[in-house]
Design goal:
It is built from nine helices and 41 strands. The protein is of the alpha/beta class. It folds into two domains: 228 residues, Spore Coat Polysaccharide Biosynthesis Protein SpsA, Chain A (Alpha-Beta Complex); 191 residues, 3 Solenoid (UDP N-Acetylglucosamine Acyltransferase, domain 1), CATH 2.160.10. A nine-stranded parallel sheet has the order 14-17-20-23-26-29-32-35-38, with no helix packed on it. It has a seven-stranded mixed sheet with strand order 5-4-1-6-10-7-11, sandwiched between helices. The chain is elongated. Bound molecules: uridine-diphosphate-N-acetylglucosamine (UD1) and calcium ion (CA). Calcium ion binds next to loops.
Length: 473
Amino acid sequence: MSVDQPISSSRASRPLAVIVLAAGLGTRMKSDVPKVMHPVCGRPLLSYVLDAATALAPARLVVVTGPDHQGVEALLPPGAERAVQAERLGSGDAVRAGMAPLAGFDGDVMVLNGDVPLVGAALLAGLLGRHVDGAARATITTVVLADPGHYGRVIRDSSGDVARIVEARDASPGQLAVAEINVGFYVFDAAELRRFLPTLTADNVQGEYYLTDLVHRFLEAGDRVDAFLTADVEASMGVNSRVELAQVTAIMRRRLLEQLMLAGVSIDDPSSTYVDWGVTVGRDSLIRPQTMLTGATSVGERCTIGPGCFLADVTVDDGAAIVSSHLVGCHVGPDCNVGPFTHVRARTELAAGAKAGSFVEIKASRVGRGSKVPHLSYVGDTTIGENSNIGAGTITANYDGEHKHQTVIGSDVKVGSDTVFVAPVTVGDGAYIGAGSIITKDVPAGALGVARARQDNIEGYTDRRRGRRRDRA
Ligand code: UD1
Ligand code: CA
């Protein structure tokens, strides 16, 4: 999880640069979207790694991307630099690209795989501390996994020191049996890194320049290489396929829900509750099962959301209750009631105590304080004043096939059931609308607007009809 305060790297007397590798093609994702842009709980997975890196307050932060990586620029924190890896020749080549802007840099260079979103700043601070304390020229991060799968294996010599990293695809059966893997977080002495990068070759199964081969280069030159063994299995999970994306997302989701619960939010069923990164929920609110809170959604205190709600980019004020409904890009005021089965669409404002009831769709409209749209209505491009009541089955006909038009309904208006407002049209304060009306003209304040055919009652109709039938028989 992100840490708000930068973690002091004062133990490291030397300046720190961080290179985040994010240029990989992500072939195993089978996607047109760059791998690091795939969302985990609504946020590109690269952003989590950048958070952890930023918390170290490095002197330089370089993000290596591909030339065509759209949208990555927007994710970079202030002060971060982007380096472009022209061709995807492997993680070693990506480090080479990342070192280009660091030509004159002297100090420690931390290299992070950009596809490991569960990493936190504490683990990286631990790695840096180990590097400094161990007086090594290179420090790698390792973890022991029950199923080491496709990860690079950490091969140690007879005295237990790191000897090399062997990629799974290049490993012998004996090496594959090793459970200690390379997590993909490293610290290197800048000068030595610069010295060994040009010596990397691509003579391996994948024909790539492996960053992991640097370990052997350092050792060959007599440089000390240390390993920071972490127990944090989750922080080590790389995202290389959609299966791993779902696994990482499930863990992130659980963390976000736990944060909310610890902050005073009740969640009936965390296993069926989905909350995006950055969503806030206030104290004593209750999230009921089968609910998704996504995007820039914020929920106030003492609210009830769900069961069965989807909210995207919605602001919900204190004390509101929403059940079995779909809301997007709207504002639900304090103590409002929404649902069940309500669709509240973009640019809608429900003022304090307003109600949007069952089978109601509201778009780009303002429903004033205490006003109610209780049943079976469509309200679009409409402004409703305070304490008005919109009868069941009311429709604002806002679209003439070319343009959208506004309906304005004042305060204390009572709209009868099954009314159609043909916009543009305005209804004044305190007016009444007769049920079944098709309102095409403005209704002044305090007036009754009725627009429907008058009722005729044809006396004796039934008897006459039966008489005719008898005559025919
Ligand atoms: C890498 C490690 C492996 C380790 C694993 C941990 C190498 C050779 N292997 O394997 O030992 O166990 O991570 O998750 O590094 N990248 C580029 N440009 C490229 C290729 C890769 O920027 O040309 C970036 C990727 O975006 C990614 C990182 O480098 O962030 C690692 O590349 P990836 O292909 O995911 O390597 P893995 O096979 O996961
Ligand atoms: Ca990877």
